[in-house]
Design goal:
Blueprint lengths: L6 H55 L6 H33 L6 E5 H18 L3 E4 L7 E5 H17 L6 E8 L4 E8 L6 H4 L23 H11 L4 E6 L3 E9 L3 H14 L1
Helix pairs in contact: 1-2, 2-6, 3-4, 4-6
The chain binds adenosine-5'-diphosphate.
Adenosine-5'-diphosphate binds next to helix 4 and helix 6.
């Protein structure tokens, strides 16, 4: 049987093949850039605490060890550096899981009011150090949402920590919950801290992005906190917003779905079983 070759079809197919390949290569190039940037950022973030720890240990070995008071002080500082490393590595672990899409949400019905109260308790001491008041208009009854409790706790914690870190002395952090249309609520974390310039807001949720890039910034952090929050909220198919006025304060908010009656009942039954 003779082979009939329709030249124009063939040309079209070759062109399509070349276009696809070009696209593939471009995607790979972008990924490679992304990977390089990521590695650069990771090593940069790890370097600071590592050098700090090394500095203290070397000074101790150099003779500072003989003085009991200095010994304790330097060991405490080195231990603080280790804490920081652990914190960064945990954040990195979380972000890689989130980005690869490996995070499986474990959704259940739980009371968000109780969760917020527990986060406030956790950070009361930190707030006290800057004389920041944590306020939460507690609704009279529980508000059940359907979400991954542990992850949402992390989101609230990251936002509260930021509001304290970037908050002013004697300032306030306020959390409020409001009903939205249908079965949604919105949780707002508002501070009257340093605020964020408009030009920085766009990049705020990028990983490793920090407004103050100087090495001597007073607040520690990995620049991963908000990026983790955004990933978690988006994994829930919910929305996150930020509004900020430089020098006045910021408000971070996100939506959550209210739990349905049967989900609440199920959660209560499980709770009863545990008891
Ligand atoms: P980190 O706090 O570790 O730097 P985040 O991802 O949590 O990282 O935040 C990124 C940046 O956004 C911070 O470095 C800070 O500049 C800015 N930022 C976050 N929250 C606030 C806030 N409540 N007020 C002012 N700036 C903030």
């Amino acid at each position: 049987q003779p082979i009939t070759t329709d030249m124009s079809t063939l040309t079209k197919e070759i062109e399509k093949f070349a276009k696809d390949k070009k696209l593939q290569i471009e995607t790979l190039k972008v990924r490679e850039e992304y990977r390089k940037e990521f590695m650069g950022n990771v090593s940069h973030e790890l370097k600071t605490p590592l050098f700090t720890i090394q500095g203290y240990l070397l000074t101790l070995l150099d003779g500072a060890m003989d003085d009991k008071n200095i010994r304790k002080k330097y060991l405490q500082r080195a231990a603080k550096g280790v804490d920081r490393l652990i914190y960064i590595v945990k954040d990195l672990d979380m972000i890689s899981k989130l980005e690869v899409g490996n995070l499986i949400l474990e959704q259940e019905a739980f009371d968000i009011v109780e969760l917020i109260q527990s986060v406030f308790e956790l950070f009361e001491m930190k707030a006290n150090k800057k004389n920041i008041v944590l306020t939460f208009d507690i609704p009279y009854e529980p508000i059940y949402v359907y979400a991954d409790k542990e992850r949402i706790q992390q989101c609230v914690a990251n936002l509260v920590v930021n509001s304290i870190k970037y908050g002013k002395m004697d300032g306030t952090t306020e959390i409020s919950i409001e009903n939205l249309i249908k079965n949604k609520i919105i949780i707002r974390v508002t501070d009257n801290g340093e605020g964020i310039e408009q030009s920085n807001i766009r990049r705020l949720f990028e990983r490793f992005y920090r407004v103050d890039k100087s090495g001597n910034r007073k607040e520690g952090g990995s620049g991963l906190g908000l990026s983790i929050v955004k990933h978690i909220i988006e994994a829930h198919k919910e929305k996150i917003y930020v509004e900020s006025v430089f020098g006045v304060g910021s408000e971070f908010s996100f939506t959550l779905e209210k739990a349905a009656e049967d989900q609440i009942l199920e959660a209560e039954e499980m709770y009863d079983d545990e008891i």
